[in-house]
Description:
InterPro entries: PRTase-like, PRTase_dom, Pur/Pyrimidine_PRTase, PuR_N, PurR_Bsub, WH-like_DNA-bd_sf, WH_DNA-bd_sf. Belongs to the purine/pyrimidine phosphoribosyltransferase family. PurR subfamily. It comes from Sporomusa malonica. Residues 116-242 form the Phosphoribosyltransferase domain. The chain is globular. The strands form 4 sheets. A 6-stranded mixed sheet has the order 6-5-9-10-11-12, with helices on both faces. The protein has a two-stranded antiparallel sheet with strand order 1-2. The protein has a two-stranded antiparallel ribbon with strand order 3-4. The protein has helices at residues 6-19, 27-34, 38-54, 78-92, 107-110, 113-127, 143-153, 211-222, and strands at residues 58-63, 69-74, 98-99, 103-104, 134-138, 157-160, 171-177, 184-190, 199-207, 226-236, 247-257, 262-267. Helix content is 35%, strand content 28%. Helix 1 (6-19) crosses helix 3 (38-54) and helix 6 packs across helix 7 (143-153). By secondary structure, the protein is of the alpha/beta class. It folds into 2 domains: 6-74, Orthogonal Bundle (Arc Repressor Mutant, subunit A); 78-267, Rossmann fold (3-Layer(aba) Sandwich), CATH 3.40.50.2020.
Amino acid sequence: MDKVRKMERVAALTKLMSDRPRHLFSLSHFSELFGAAKSTICEDITTIKETMGHFGLGTIETVAGAAGGIRFIPTVSAKETDRLLNELARRLAEPDRIIPGGFLYMSDLLFTPHLMVKVGEIFMERLAHLSPDYILTVETKGIPLAFMTARAFDLPLITVRRGSKVTEGSAVSINYVTGSFKRIQTMSLPKRALPAGAKVLIIDDFMKAGGTARGMVDLAQEVGAKVCGIGVLVATAEPEPKLVEDYLALLILHDVHEHTKVTDIRPVLTSG
């Protein structure tokens, strides 16, 4: 191939790494791809790292050793995080979002890619210390959020079903009680979805009493996996305590007045 100029390599490297956050690329891979020496690739990576750091877009992490390489770690600044969470709170407080029963219509936001990409990166930043092996969610509205979180972690997403599908083979099913309405429901997980001993991070869009999250914790334990953390976009202030502990919520829903159409929802800001 024709010799690739530095500007072209930097643009291509940035695209390739940002498309797969946290994925470990070997220097040999890029060296062969661009027909350039590893030392040249390292110089390009330094340029990218400095630029990303200058604009607060992320960093490049170098992993030493034979199995090492480089990976892009996206970051969302405290200022940008607070701005996004304030925007989501403002939009969720719109009067026409109130649904009978004290719930909010959230689907349009959950299915807006650029919003969920950022929320997924926020979850990744705040929960990376848990070092999960898989992201776990329940169908259906929370899937886009969980999927973008899985992308930010560079991990597989496992979806728990409300019921079982014959196309997924044998499954483990449990009955659980919803914390808010005290109804008995069923959720299932294919036996081959999670290996025993895997660490899973639960991500969901909404938590009221925590019954669904509790069900996912119990289901993961049934297949021999361990839940290392729980993240939800919106959690209600009441009831308290929930059926699960140690969860991270990005927004807290304090009250919904169906008659006055006033919603009190507040972001959990980095500034406290």
